[in-house]
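the two lines:
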Amino acid sequence: MTQQRLSAATWKAEIVKMRGFGSPLPAADEASVIAYLAAHLGPSVPQPPPNTVVTAPPVTYTNAETSASASTASASTTNANGAQLYAQNCAACHGAAGAGVPGAFPPLVHDPVVTAANPAAHISAVLKGVHGKAIGGKSYSSPMPPFAQLSDNDIAAIINHERTSWGNHAPTVTPAQIKSAR
Amino acid sequence: MRTRLQFLTTLGSTVAAGALPRPAFAAAGDTMIVVNSRPFDYETPLGELAPSVYTANRTFFIRSHMGPPASIDVHAWRLVVDGLVAHPLQLSLDDLRKMQKVEVASVLQCSGNGRYFFGKAYPTVSHPAGAQWTYGGVGNARWGGVRVRDVLARAGVRPGARFSTNSGLDNPVLPTTPKFIRGIELAKLLDPDTILAYEMNGQPLPYEHGYPVRLLVPGWAGDHSVKWIAHMTLAPTLTTDFWTAVGYRYPNQLGPPGKGVPPQAEHPLTALNVKSIITAPDTSTRVRAGAPNSVSGIAWSGDGAQVNRVEVSIDGGRTWRDAKLGTSPGRYSWRTFTYSWTPAAGSAIILARAHDDRGAVQPNVSPWNPGGYLWNAIQRVNVEVSAA
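prediction for all of em together
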């Protein structure tokens, strides 16, 4: 899929088809997914070279063994650090370096909420998501989903990574602050 | 809300329930190009496509819609033929083997082979969606089996039957995903070269290629050649199933590149078109000036048209010379071609252009279409020739 370079309209047609096929993507997330795909895998983004020859036998089926290792990976991520958690949960939209995608996803670098001394708005954004708010004077069509399913430790690690990376220097938070904000 | 990891794990365990076998292809050390990993689409590297007439079963390209069936009990397998027939049939593999066996040498090509190159040719618009095949979504094999017309003669085609709805043992992972069901004109099924194949290059049909039996519809896009076939229903009309009514269609009128076309303004894509592939040299080949060298490749057309001429250019299309064509084992097979040349130092731009016996010739660029089908443009291979 990452080899494809489609316009937003074509990505939308693909998403609509996949949801018809049974994809569990919630309708509310559709716009963000399309915006992400159009921004990262649009016609203007160079395609990777196609001829990656792999030597057989490649792994072609997900079997019981690989499912088990996926569960193990899931358990271990709770102990991962903020950078890893950010890469897994946030970087897809906000970028590995917090630069965002112009017109689609806001940057976190020098963002007033991320760099505010009072972290309440930052914690709320991660816990409850953000909808229809202008950020830095710009409005973004795609809503940010809530990440309340993550643990207090993980959310604190992500927030602290965002508050202390890419030139941001804001006070950090504790898991207890996340807990009380839920 | 589910995290991505949970979602993948859930999907994985659904797949795992069937305890799927590994594909039988590819002995250790064989190479294929992964286009998609789940379900798997593998293309054949250029080096495996030539110089032989037939492609090895091991490295023959694989296109999957749903992935192969979790398991196949060949003793329980039956081909059901019903609908507008006088005598509905349930044929076992032994029943088919007792019928007259025929062999057909035929290219099998994914309709989307070369889809990747639409993006290169039309870089500023949406690329056609789908698996980004380059060259190797094609192969040529000697298929053994029985004529569909012989089976239908046993069933007795009733008046009013004009189409067949065909499906195999493969099923989607999710119940809401449409099963791979394909409609086809009865007239094409009655062609003496359209067969129910149980052999591929003299071997039992490999698992991933449709064991125990697949349709083989020569000269038409590969999606007609339903794998693991189990059910053929004759009907007065073409099925409205997704993979016939929405997928695998070509615009009645080509529009501007990048613009979608609704399925109602499209028709089922059937015949392949004239095409050639240069299998050697490739851009990484070391070519020395002054030493005899050769350009080689394969060329084929669709719907029974046969390639009768391949021209080669080594100067980017300024001058063309006829290549030498290999013998053809049949009108649905590809032909090999070779062209001998002695390179001069500098850059060589090598092109090949195939013609068929109905007057069709490869274009410089294939027309953009939403499905990215039927790419058959002239291939360019840039080669640096080092001084002698």
